[in-house]
Design brief:
By secondary structure, this protein is an alpha/beta fold. It has ten helices and twelve strands. It has one domain: Phosphatidylinositol (PI) phosphodiesterase (TIM Barrel, Alpha-Beta Barrel). Strands 1, 2, 3, 4, 7, 9, 10, 11 and 12 form a nine-stranded mixed beta sheet that branches. Strands 6-5-8 form a three-stranded antiparallel beta sheet, with no helix packed on it. It starts with a helix and ends with a helix.
Length: 339
Amino acid sequence: MSSHLQILLLALFMTAPALQRGPAGPPETLRPGARVWLHAHNCYPEKGLWTDRLDRALATRADHLAIEQDVAWAADAQGHGRSVVSHEAKLTGNEPTLEEHFFNRVRPMMEQALKENRRETWPLLVLHLDFKTHEPAHHQAVWDLLGRHESWLTTAERVADDTRIMPFVPGPLLVLTEAGEGQVDTFHLKVPVGERLRLFGTVVPVPPTGSNSEERAAAAISATPEALLPTGATNYRRWANFSWAVVEHGGQAKAGAWTPEDERRLQSLVSRAHGLGLWIRFYTLNGHPPGEAPGWTESYNFGSLSAAETRWKAAVAAGVEFVATDQYEEFARILAARR
């Protein structure tokens, strides 16, 4: 046998295992359980107030920061529209566009990240889109907006079989959405096979049953992790999104002292999600004196900062990826203490 042929056969032997494995797994930074993010809840102005929320979140300098932007479709009489940042579907006309409020604000960060090209640290930032209106034109406008910033994005190849989970190609920004009506059509099904997915949705939620709030609260806390998460990740659906009511009966406002049973419940949900290849988010964990909050939802309030901190630490220890809170600075300190 010639030496040339021997070298060729040796090379084929050494590469065969890699060929059998197929696509590489997710980057370590994107593996379920690898990172905990400060999830800046409702990080935008509301009715002209609290205009500093995005600046506050960015100023925490958290290593892992997720920004929630609620978006609605603002259309004129001619049908031309734009995606604006709003907590409500009913608009005042003064809402900033998603592009000007978020994308223009983080542009220097993204351009610097691309220049430095430290891919092992990507993504640096998560954008969580919570759609308040689901017009096909709205979804398309957001898809096009992401296309104009595709060099920033963490993407994955669109394949015909959605159960075939393709590896991420990390960018400095990861964009997530939920499971609202029609989103999967624009963001996944209409994307040609071989092109790139620009954002990633949740698994379809299983809402608690019941004819009133008490029955729904009982159903939420009694549901098994398997019932709450019956299916795992797909190529498009990469995460799960839950109210805290699936962890403590009645949610934040009715929570008592944090118990070992609560901790086991939290860990069982996180373990189920991670075992299915999903990231997991819980919303929204606040703690402050009643009535003393700048536009925060009172039902998300544990009643004191110490009560919220106990849950934050438990969520961090359990490996919850996205811990949503309105108290950005306080949660950032909890994360910083882990370094």
